Amino acid sequence: MSDISMGTTKHKKAWTAARKKNLAIDIFFYVLLTVIALICLFPVVHVFSKSISEESYVIANKVVLFPKGFSLNAYQKIFADSSILRSMFVTVVVTISFTVIGMFLTVCAAYALSRRELKGRKLMTFLIMLTMYFTAGTIPDYLLMNNLHMLDTWWCMILPLCFAPYNLLIMKTNFQASIPDSLVESAVIDGAGHFRILASIVLPLSKPILATIALFYAVGRWNAYQDALYYIKQRTDLRPLQLKLYYLVVSAQESFQAEGGNVGVLTNPEVLKAACVIFATLPIVCIYPFVQKYFVQGTMVGAVKG
Amino acid sequence: MMQTKKSKPKESLALYMKKNWQLYALMVLPLLFIFIFKYGAYFGLTIAFKDYKVAKGFADSEWVGFKIFEKVFRHRDFGKSVWNTLLLNILDLVFSFPMPIILALILNEIRCKWFKKLTQTLLYLPHFLSWVIIGALAYQLFSVSNGVVNNLISNMGGSPIPFLQDDTWWLISYILIGVWQSMGWGTIIYLAAITGVNPELYEAARVDGAGRWKQCLHVTLPCIRSTVVTLLIMNLGKVMQGSFERIYALMNAKATEYTTTIPVLVYRWGIEGGKFSEATALGLFQSVIGLILVLLADFIAKRLGEDGLI
User: Fold this and answer.
1) Does A2 touch chain B (CB under 8 A)?
2) Which of A41, A44, A139 to mutate to test the interface with B (most CBs of B within 10 A)?
3) Which of B84, B185, B239, B264 has the smallest count of CB within 10 Å of its CB?
4) Which residues pair with B62 in a beta bridge?
5) Could you give the CA distance from residue A157 to residue B181 in angstroms, rounded to a whole number?
6) ipTM associated with this complex
7) At residue A257, does pLDDT exceed 70?
8) Which domain holds residue A42?
9) b/e per residue, A91-100, with b = 16+ CB within 10 A?
10) Distance between CA B299 and CA B291 in Å, rounded?
């Protein structure tokens, strides 16, 4: 702060060595951060440019940062491939149901565990947190899914992971810190039940943390492919997008199946892969800047413990 | 007197339940979920001590004590997988841990608000990409024949580098990709800690003639020390865990030296190979060591006067 005021009052003062040094450090930091930020962005931009460039330029390795030529051939192929669209549909349905169920359970538990009136809340918290530090492991989880007859169903991607103790911890801490006890107590005295207090006092006051946790759930589900890899074996129509992408792009075990459209035109696999990556990333990249302010706030509160 | 004393708690319990039953109702579903999906899975751990046959099922398979563990510990891939898990995690810690601290300190020096916000947005981006996407990006960028990085190298007269096809280069790429993915997101927690530093401390330091470097060294760093120590210890507690998704998305047939880690071996033995008992035993071994390390880390953090995690 005082730097700025000093700067304005002594604006006409000569460039001392100290000020020159300060400016040099500033420039260095700005340049350094710009470079690092561009490194974070570059891979996505590069692949995006590849995906909309004309093939001949991509094959000749001429696309670096900006697209050369313009062609949406690869995207047409993707939209002609019904299995990719189906995967997108599966991912959207699973992500939405996962987030809704997860949020419901997390809000219920976080509110109840944040109230001192709840007897045995220490024990309940311990029972829930224990599962975070001691996990049964891949195979017991797999056998459980098998015993519940959930393998190769929608449910194996929705139910087992949708209630995350870590998110519960963040939300509980947040409720405790941001909802004044006196507010809840006066509502109790007025005869309001806990359902009503939760719905009409606590939730409206907690929008940032609700947005943050919902984002965590949604992004976590959108991005994960491990459980689908384990549990979805026979029903290829239930493969979420990330798993489909894994088979198509990373391990290249599957090829694109274009149906209808301009089948005659052969698209370079590199371009197709690039388009696939962008297709799967776009939803997240579009939503993310809008929720950024929420998750930064929310995580900062959670960061104090956990 | 006696009667009122006796009846009072009963009455208040009824009143208490009338007032608070909804709290317990709220806990029913979450606890049900935990018991079914987490504690339910714990039963599956018993097959680490059984000769599990799918045809016989859970209950009827024969108890064999620690025989499965002996078999697992003697397996030639076991030592390798433990070593690789530790190696990848420790290298990850050495390179990925300091970056967010350095970045947060630099971001703290930036006065221009829009620049700071824009940089942060870009820095957080990799955290939101899935490992499949990151794997796909890596193969596009680092490909030997047509990856953009190798093109640049050969344009400058160098020979192409097999970033993902050679064991040592694979390890380097794996670590660097991890740094790339996590460095921005990690700054959030440190920036939060820096925001909490009392501005008077900077004033006092400035009065004493401390420049920016001295302020950073003697004010900011000591103030975020406890956050750094807590996170470091907690990360040390996690050195036995491993990200299956990260390794699986980056591994290929050409570089296999470092990819045999515990989670990958569990997947190979159990899901692919159907050797459920062995895979469960290996997973249990990892979970138990992991739990011990976390508890140890928590204990040390508390002894050092920091907040523990548990």
Assistant:
1) yes
2) A139
3) B185
4) B51
5) 25
6) 0.85
7) no
8) 2-59
9) beebbebbbe
10) 12
